[in-house]
Amino acid sequence: MSTSTETSLDDANNAQKTPKTVPSTSELNKTNNFQRIAHKKMVVRSYPRNKKLETLAVYSSCKFECCKCNGWKNPNAPPQPPVADASQPLANLTDPCKSCRHPLEAHVSHLENTDEEELNRLLRIVVDVENLFVCVHREEDAEAKQVYFYLFKLLRKCILNTSQPSIEGSLGTPPFEKPSIAKGVTNFVLYKFGTLAQKEWQTMYDLAKMFLHCLNHWKLWPPASRGQQLDEKDENDYKLNYTRWLCFCHVPAFCDSLPRYETTLIFGQTLLRSVFQTMRRQLLDKFRAEKDKMPPDKKTLVLTHFPRFLTMLEQEVYGTSSPIWDQDFAQNTANLPTPSPAVSPGAAAGVSGLSRFTSSTVGTDACGVLNISSGLLTSGRQSSRSQEAAEKRKADEAGLSDGAKRPRIDGDVSKEMLQEILAEMNSDGEKEDTMVGPETICPTHAARDEQARQEEKDGKIDFHIINNSLSHRPSNQVFLWLIEMQNLFSHQLPRMPKEYITRLVFDPKHKCLVLIKQNHVIGGICFRMFPTQCFTEIVFCAVTSSEQVKGYGTTLMNHLKDYHLLHNITHFLTFADEFATGYFKKQGFSKDIKLPRAQYLGYIKDYEGATLMGCELCPRINYTDFSRVIRKQKEIIKRIAAKKSIETEKVFSGVGLFKEGVKLPLPFESIPGLVESGWKPPVKKEKEPQVDTDQLFNSLRTILQQVKSHASSWPFLKPVDKSEAPDYYDHIKFPMDLRTMTERLKARYYIHKHLFIADMNRIVTNCRSYNEPDTEYYKCANTIEKYYTTKMKEASLMDK
Ligand code: COA
């Protein structure tokens, strides 16, 4: 879905252009231009050192005493700079500078001892500077032109000072508004659709992702081409946000020396309000125009669900008091994930060797490694979830939440009992370590990852996502871990060629989740993400021999699952050999692949003799915490059972009705203790009108009297005399007669008409089963049956 959305979006984005508003940088925004830029960066990176210095010399200041020359390309270039002379052949280091006439080497003397990576970084900035130069030249919109020029100068200064680019000043620093658009839209999905069933919820969640994806790739209009805005404040806000968007989102997309941010993560409701209506209209127009080319399911999604979704979202975007924009929005979503649709998989890289996350989600250390240990990766999900859970509890107590509205199911545990149990667990020191669970009594029953989780909590182990990068040199630490990872895989997977392992581990498209103990890699998973195809291929997975079967393999997989949920990837695929299928099965993999074949065919590497296995991730689950949650739930159920058993242990007096001469079957309610143990009469499917018991008693008394007075009732007036039919009770196990019925009536046994009907039927069926059809008795039974049913119907006690 995302691929085609991207295409549509690009087209839609292009469609918005009018000759006046076409930004002259539009080509730069296309994929082939990205590739061209990336290629150019790779080319300069492969230059010999001398050539690198020559290139940098023309951008660096002269170090001759008193020389003020800043190189050929003056950083203080005029706003209308001359056309770039990129085609000009490079000079030699001994050539004189065209401006100051000092040899060019005097411009790069400061770089003499600079390491190769730093030179490469500066060269990347050079490529960006040259691109910006073109942008400044071509841009027609005055404001955009100014911004390109500002960035051009900024990057030039970075080359001169060998510094890192940093945009400072009145624009402020991202995020510019909280909550972000991504958070607001996520809140919207939770707020409006949080109670839907999984499938419907997933659809809404996908629509939210699609919307955010569109917005992240949306090209904002220059303020001048938006037309006259009614609201001056909106106009000023938009101007400022447009400049910010250029500096932090748009330009960094093709000038990656500048830090890049996603639009939906750094802007909030204000920007969304400025663009929502136009964006909505153009997106829907585009989808409608493309509808004939879409597969039916996508058509339904974008033409039926998406417009409704947008209409509902619009109300919240422009509403004055929508809760989705509350900073501490907390919905009744204890069992829902807090998805991060805004985290676009495979988005532009930030720091070297670092998997890119939003700053609000995870942090990185000085090495540029993504540390996902101690719940850092899921902290967003967890903290908001626990907050939501707390809110939910409060709301439940106040009878406000949806939970309070939920109809009670028969046999539900009462709220009071649950609260009591939770309080007990708290007062028992309901901490993980002190909980009375099966694993404390019998450690072998503890979840496989329990020990590893504890070690992670204690800081004895941690997990990191690392990868090699061609554009940003990873830190030495990353390299060391990658080498250790490669060695570990080579040892544990002897059937895999070593060179092959090395190639994939060091391939920038592959990532490794590494498990670190005492600063050494003791396990890891190498994987490749295919965000457009919604799946990730698990390439290698291993734990060092001495550390196997301690739960590390499971914990690694759990972390990998959580990491992918944050990236909105919900499928894992792997080719498992005969030794690995057992492990993968235990991690939720199966040979039944849920992902459509077309989605992975041609993407995943095929291994001979191995079995393709897949695992579908559930966005509602926090995998690293899953076994703990289950353990807690088990403990709650155990305590509920214990409480209930105390209640049921009470000894009641026996059934007294027998003494009073009442025969079987007894009404259930009359058995002492049954009702107290929670038994309730089965609920009738059809709602029957409530009958007053006295009224019922009177009706039944009349009918019984009429039956007794009927001419055919004589065989049934009293119990069958054994002397008259010695074998009667051998055949008839549940005898019944009109006298017994009279006694029962008096004893108020017939609290429901069905009890009366049952006894009457018993008389008739007993008679028919004991006697032949041609007997007088049999005929009497038929007559009486007809008679009493007529009377019952007349009294509205039977359907007519
Ligand atoms: N076959 C069947 N079950 C296996 C298994 C195998 N080869 N390896 C592990 N398991 C089971 C464990 O017994 C455990 O089951 P349990 O919880 O019911 O006791 C469960 O899988 C997970 O154990 P865990 O301790 O979390 O895994 P681990 O740390 O031992 O790591 C491997 C599992 C597969 C990564 C590890 O055994 C290994 O490195 N093997 C060699 C390399 C390999 O074959 N990799 C897989 C293909 S790339």
Automatic annotation (TrEMBL):
<dbReference type="InterPro" id="IPR016181">
    <property type="entry name" value="Acyl_CoA_acyltransferase"/>
</dbReference>
<keyword id="KW-0963">Cytoplasm</keyword>
<dbReference type="InterPro" id="IPR000182">
    <property type="entry name" value="GNAT_dom"/>
</dbReference>
<dbReference type="Pfam" id="PF00439">
    <property type="entry name" value="Bromodomain"/>
</dbReference>
<keyword id="KW-0805">Transcription regulation</keyword>
<feature type="region of interest" description="Disordered">
    <location>
        <begin position="379"/>
        <end position="413"/>
    </location>
</feature>
<keyword id="KW-0010">Activator</keyword>
<feature type="domain" description="N-acetyltransferase">
    <location>
        <begin position="470"/>
        <end position="618"/>
    </location>
</feature>
<feature type="region of interest" description="Disordered">
    <location>
        <begin position="1"/>
        <end position="32"/>
    </location>
</feature>
<dbReference type="InterPro" id="IPR001487">
    <property type="entry name" value="Bromodomain"/>
</dbReference>
<keyword id="KW-0156">Chromatin regulator</keyword>
<dbReference type="InterPro" id="IPR036427">
    <property type="entry name" value="Bromodomain-like_sf"/>
</dbReference>
<dbReference type="InterPro" id="IPR009464">
    <property type="entry name" value="PCAF_N"/>
</dbReference>
<dbReference type="Pfam" id="PF06466">
    <property type="entry name" value="PCAF_N"/>
</dbReference>
<keyword id="KW-0012">Acyltransferase</keyword>
<keyword id="KW-0808">Transferase</keyword>
<keyword id="KW-0804">Transcription</keyword>
<dbReference type="GO" id="GO:0005634">
    <property type="term" value="C:nucleus"/>
</dbReference>
<feature type="domain" description="Bromo">
    <location>
        <begin position="708"/>
        <end position="778"/>
    </location>
</feature>
<keyword id="KW-0539">Nucleus</keyword>
<dbReference type="InterPro" id="IPR018359">
    <property type="entry name" value="Bromodomain_CS"/>
</dbReference>
<keyword id="KW-0206">Cytoskeleton</keyword>
<comment type="similarity">
    <text>Belongs to the acetyltransferase family. GCN5 subfamily.</text>
</comment>
<protein>
    <recommendedName>
        <fullName>histone acetyltransferase</fullName>
        <ecNumber>2.3.1.48</ecNumber>
    </recommendedName>
</protein>
<dbReference type="Pfam" id="PF00583">
    <property type="entry name" value="Acetyltransf_1"/>
</dbReference>
<dbReference type="GO" id="GO:0045944">
    <property type="term" value="P:positive regulation of transcription by RNA polymerase II"/>
</dbReference>
<dbReference type="GO" id="GO:0005813">
    <property type="term" value="C:centrosome"/>
</dbReference>
<dbReference type="GO" id="GO:0043992">
    <property type="term" value="F:histone H3K9 acetyltransferase activity"/>
</dbReference>
<feature type="compositionally biased region" description="Basic and acidic residues">
    <location>
        <begin position="388"/>
        <end position="413"/>
    </location>
</feature>
<dbReference type="InterPro" id="IPR037800">
    <property type="entry name" value="GCN5"/>
</dbReference>
<keyword id="KW-0103">Bromodomain</keyword>
<dbReference type="GO" id="GO:0140672">
    <property type="term" value="C:ATAC complex"/>
</dbReference>
